[in-house]
Amino acid sequence: MGRQFFVGGNFKMNPVTREQKNALVKVLNDADIDTNVEVVIAPPALYLIPLKETLRKEIQVAAQNSYFKTSGAFTGEISPAQLVDAGIPYVILGHSERRTLFHETSELVADKTRAAIDAGLRVILCVGETLAEREAERTKAVVDAQLAPVVAALTPADWDKVVVAYEPVWAIGTGKVASAAQAQAAHKDIRAFLAGAVSPAVAESTRIIYGGSVTAANCKELGGQPDVDGFLVGGASLKPEFVDIINTKR
Ligand code: PEP
């Protein structure tokens, strides 16, 4: 079976008011969207349950982070079990903002991924290189090293719960999008890594989505690449053009 196109919207720490949040929900609920696409919105934790309750049922929600413990003295954290209990199906893990600003290592991301899957969540697992790493031609080495602890933590069967998001750090929130050729090359390398480190079947079935300054203007060319199975969208997910990105394949 082919890989279903996937579009995620990462609201990050936006919007600031419930009124703005309601306006975003209205845009999505009123839109004519391609029902062949899996659409997942990741709002701030505060809005997870309200979004789940007010968004049309074809659109799912994701947390932007979760911890690897089930409960206890971990102030400020949310556990995978709590998300599952609240009916939240997905979590984003390893976003570059968490790796950079909150010093999350690939080992921690692997522990969180293991715990999320054990609890019953699906994971949008983010990887990607910095500009300096790309310029030093270390993109594949860096991304493989980010994936390796996750490969070690998961069984091959776990991978049907994972969507890999390739998000070059230099393209996130910068307006500097990867070219279609750059995205395709990186996605092909990730698929090759999964084929060798997990299995060819897992490599073939795992969705690898691109993130980094995706807009309505560039989504068609990026989405036309054979190894690009969708997008993780930050800034543009807060704008009406997000609907055009969801409908990339139309
Ligand atoms: C992101 O936050 O995952 C992202 C890709 O952001 P942006 O689309 O704004 O670059």
Automatic annotation (TrEMBL):
Keyword annotations from UniProtKB, A to Z: Gluconeogenesis, Glycolysis, Isomerase
What's the top EC group for this one?
A: isomerase
Instruction: Give the Gene Ontology MF terms in alphabetical order.
Output: triose-phosphate isomerase activity
Question: What is a biological process (GO) this protein takes part in?
Answer: glycerol catabolic process
User: What does the record give as the reaction this protein catalyses?
Assistant: D-glyceraldehyde 3-phosphate = dihydroxyacetone phosphate
**What do the Gene Ontology cellular component annotations say?**
cytosol
Looking up PROSITE patterns in the UniProt record yields: TIM_1, TIM_2
Q: In which pathway does it act?
A: Carbohydrate degradation; glycolysis; D-glyceraldehyde 3-phosphate from glycerone phosphate: step 1/1; Carbohydrate biosynthesis; gluconeogenesis
CDD domains, per database record: TIM
Q: Which SUPFAM superfamilies match?
A: Triosephosphate isomerase (TIM)
Stated EC number for the protein is 5.3.1.1
- Describe the family membership recorded for this protein in Swiss-Prot or TrEMBL: Belongs to the triosephosphate isomerase family.
Q: How does it assemble?
A: Homodimer.
Q: Please give the name of this protein.
A: Triosephosphate isomerase
**Species, as recorded:** Trametes pubescens (White-rot fungus)
